Amino acid sequence: MKQIPIITLFFAAAFFICGCRDISCRSMENDTNNRSAKRQTLRIVNWNTETFFNAVNDGTEYSEFKSSKSAWNRNAYVTRLDRLCDVINKLDADVYVFEEIENEGILYDIANRLAANSWNSSRNWNYACFSKTAGDAIGCAVISRYSLSGMTVHTLDIRVQGVQPPMRPVMEVSVLTEGNSLVLIVNHWKSKSGGEEKTEIWRDWQESLLSERIAMLPGSAVLACGDFNRDIGDFVRGAENDVVLLRGAQFGSVEKTPVHSPWFTGGGTYAEPGSYCYDGSWERIDHFFTAGNAAVTDFRPETHGAWADSGGRPNGYKVYTGTGYSDHLPIAASIVY
């Protein structure tokens, strides 16, 4: 059976502030072609899939997946994989961005299930890429109906704030559509585990890295997305209703980079519901931020499916019972660029 070309990069922090490596498998169209091409629309879904491990014990899995009392096994993995593929088919986006995927082998499993007997169909997701830091349990992935190009991974090595905790790298890849390209920047920022105040400095550094990357792409269509572990209300607001100012840091030339967020609906209100529900309260910690020639239309958290309960809250995965999907809702949007 034919399988998708997976771009894999395990990148260990090795450079002060940020390091990146280009593993492009296809050259980008030039800027002139991009500017003159007809504007495109992509349907994109971002989803933190919540500790999506396969059935092979590599030693880095979370304890509940490798305990002798754990119900996690091959059958449980296959069941969960089928659920994820059902969601992919139901939402029918052009591009999916996933956080908390264990490894690239899961992408092969997803692709083989989705392809079925129509591998050459243009409706299939024939392209994918994956990245995580060596030794980490989980990483980020993209699957796409369109070619992916120019993947780079950026990581932080901060030595002025004490001991840096493990932090996931930022993955940058371009989606190519009929002469246009959309630069996709995938984030999974430091969680609040260990205390929100104590961990905030590390999310600030990750924000500064994202700010610097977007500022280096003037005139490009850019979409930053992922699980930022920071509510939209905790970002710095710009003068316009939907503008967020991503803060830079001393190492770069950028003080603030303006981006647009679809969470803002005007009049000081937010799109309902959020993407994550903690202790009964909604949070909006999963984001789409656009810059340059990109704009969001038709944005919403996806609540109509088995991945949400009757109240529209995420139906989290429970390894000991094998039930549920994820503790985050998928967020979906059409990106025009």
Characteristic terms for this protein:
seven-stranded mixed sheet; 337 residues; single chain; six-stranded mixed sheet; 18% helix; 35% strand
Task: Please outline the helices and strands.
Blueprint lengths: L5 E5 L6 E3 L11 H6 L4 E12 L10 H4 L7 H18 L3 E7 L2 H12 L11 E6 L6 E6 L2 E11 L12 E8 L2 E9 L7 H20 L5 E7 L8 E2 L5 E5 L8 E5 L3 E3 L2 E2 L5 E3 L2 E3 L2 E7 L2 E7 L29 E6 L1
Parallel strand pairs: 1-5, 3-4, 9-10
Antiparallel strand pairs: 2-7, 3-20, 4-6, 5-6, 7-8, 8-9, 10-18, 11-12, 12-13, 14-15, 16-17, 19-20
N-to-C span: 35 Å
Total E-strand runs: 20
Low-confidence stretches: 1-35
| Overall form | globular
Helix percentage range = 10-25%
- Mean pLDDT comes to 88
Strand order of the largest sheet: 1-5-6-4-3-20-19
Strand content: 25-35%
Major beta sheet, specifics? 7 strands, mixed
Q: What's the total helix number?
A: 5
Question: Mind telling me the C-alpha Rg?
Answer: 19 Å
Based on secondary structure, the structural category is alpha+beta
Order of helices and strands: EEHEHHEHEEEEEHEEEEEEEEEEE
